[in-house]
Amino acid sequence: MYNKLALLALSLRAVRAQQVGTLTPETHPTLNTQTCTASGCTTVANKVVLDANWRWTHSTSGSTNCYTGNTWDATLCPDDATCAANCALDGADYEGTYGVSASGSSLKINFVTQSAQKNVGARTYLMANDNQYQMFNLLNKEFTFDVDVSKLGCGLNGALYFVAMSADGGKAAYPNNKAGAAYGTGYCDSQCPRDLKFINGQANVDGWTPDSNSANSGTGNHGSCCDEMDIWEANSISQALTPHPCTSTGQTLCQTTACGGTDSNDTRYDSVCDPDGCDFNPFRLGNQSFYGPGKTVNTNSVFTVVTQFITADGTSTGTLSAIRRLYVQNGKVIQQSNTDVSGIDTTNEITSNFCNQEKSAFGDNTGFQTKGGLAKMGKALQNMVLVMSIWDDYAANMLWLDSDYPTTSPASSPGVARGTCATSSGTPADVESSQSSDYVTYSNIKFGTLNSTYKAS
To answer: InterPro entries of this UniProt entry (predicted)?
Structure first.
């Protein structure tokens, strides 16, 4: 994803602490999912946990903030190791503070929540139990969910995706991390984000530079890299399906310019990961009537998203050969739209040939291929954590998803037009004010053998 993941609570700003506080109880909401085979589906009582980057972090001896505005407390956090020892990560009031609510098989995440402080966005993970993330092997399987994006306007992203995080949030590998998955630690993605407050049991204080365009975020010397499979990056206008491989395996620490990604625009492609990915955005690929309000996939109402991961030998350990997508709405199965771009063969799935042709036709960076392409992505898909979030974009106003991007190129140039939103849209200050009541709902998550998780009525 192109984002910095610099989503924030405006007074108790996102922090990744490693000690555990006791001022607020941590109770994980239950979210029912289903596992499916050809003979039927079985309900599983999973849970969700809020990412550590959103939580209040305070001194272990009291309630003094370790991080206020976009700066660290110099006394509590003079360096990475001392800060991790001095700061406690506390429990969360999921609905009251962060706008996250689960009921049965449905998870709703509000964009802006106003309580004692103003919270913007949230990132959550699916858990197998109170101390472990749910792990997925997606090869030769399909992943299905229902989504309501009707209240997501330009500049917002309701993102459901997989990353190669550790099952325990890094607790075993890094003894300084006392919180682990129970408190949402261990995040990583293909942008190798440097706005994370704690990584691998250490704080990210050293080299911390407050952002010039946000009073609440910044970047440190370190980032956290891993393979990322963007199942769903979307609002009511546009959507994209995007694999992002890395040459590394699992969560990996990076330093300064070697992190590349969104936090290092001058060295965007210098990391172990591919920050761009090989994206399948129907609008960008020539079908402007497929997805949106009143279109073939009508975003005015709920619909089902099915993503299939096809292997060359039809096994759960084989080489990933294709990623396929279909939808179900009003009882009708809708196949992914076909490409309609000069230089790209007509197709409706992501394959190595499609990715090669897309990069050439659009003149995009070829990091997807050099970082291992679908074959490397497939290896990562054997051990992934599910992420569900909503966010706005301080780096590029989400124009890469729903407008013309880059804005320095004509909209008529191949690959530039990605949606109908104006190039002036998506400014965080604007969307956080005018679209504060927006939200996304994910529901009816199912995982199983191919063609087992959906049906037409």
So the answer is: ConA-like_dom_sf, Glyco_hydro_7, Glyco_hydro_7_sf
Taking phi over 0 as left and psi of -120 to 50 as alpha, with beta for the rest, 180 belongs to left
Residue 443, strand partner residues: 106, 146
- Buried residues in 206-229 as b, exposed as e (16+ CB within 10 A): bebeebeebebbbbbbbbbbbbbb
Angstrom distance (rounded) from CA 68 to CA 108:
28
CA distances from 26 to 10, 91, 182, 186, 398 (A): 21, 4, 8, 17, 32
Q: Which residue has better confidence, 336 or 9? A: 336
Alpha carbon of residue 27 to chain centroid? 23
Any idea which of 260-269, 363-372, 426-435 has the lowest mean pLDDT?
Answer: 260-269
> Which domains are assigned to the chain?
8-449 (2.70.100.10)
DSSP string, 192-215: --S--SEETTEE--TT-EE-SS-S
- DSSP string computed for 89-135: E----HHHHH-EEEETTEEEEESEEESSSEEE-EEEEEEEETTEEPE
Q: Running DSSP on this structure, what letter comes out for residue 28? A: P
Beta-strand relationship, 19-20 and 87-89: parallel
CA end-to-end distance (rounded Å), the chain: 34
Give 236's pLDDT tier (boundaries 50, 70, 90): very high
CA 286 to chain centre: 25
Mean pLDDT check: name the lowest of 32-46, 260-274, 411-425.
Answer: 260-274
Amino acid identity for residue 386 in this structure:
L
Residue 111 CA to residue 438 CA, distance in Å, equals 6
pLDDT attached to residue 37: 97
pTM score: 0.94
Distances from the Cα of 389 to the Cαs of 48, 160, 358, 368, in angstroms? 11, 6, 28, 24
Instruction: Classify residue 82 as left (phi > 0), alpha (psi -120 to 50) or beta.
Output: alpha
* Token digits of residue 141: 């399987």
Which of the residues are catalytic? 228, 233
Looking up tokens 């139990």, which residue turns up? 129
Kindly state the tokens that stand for 407: 């804005």
| pLDDT for 18 | 66
Q: Where does the pLDDT of residue 7 fall: very low under 50, low under 70, confident under 90, or very high at 90 and above?
A: very low
pLDDT at 186 over 50: yes
Q: Which helix or strand (DSSP H or E) is residue 45 part of?
A: strand 40-50
